[in-house]
Design goal:
Blueprint (H helix, E strand, L loop, with lengths): L13 H7 L6 H4 L13 H6 L24
Length: 73
């Protein structure tokens, strides 16, 4: 594995949450290809936090190393 990467929190701030208020649901949210909880959506804010500037191509495979926090059961 390359140089150790710093973990970045993607927890949304109250400001981030307000930006989404009132936006209509996308068709993907209504009829997704994969079951709930098995897809990761990264918008511009998350990509910026993760310092990802070059977007992968659709169909590319990537490796994810993550620490998770259970927030509900």
């Amino acid at each position: 594995m390359a140089a150790e990467m710093k973990m970045v929190s993607l927890k949304r701030t109250p400001e981030d949450m307000r930006k989404d208020a009132g936006e209509p649901a996308s068709i993907e949210a209504i009829a997704p290809d994969y079951p709930y909880g098995t897809v990761i959506h990264l918008d511009k804010d998350e990509l910026d936090k993760l310092k990802i500037s070059a977007l992968p191509k659709i169909g590319d495979e990537m490796i994810i190393c993550a620490r998770v926090k259970v927030t509900r059961v």
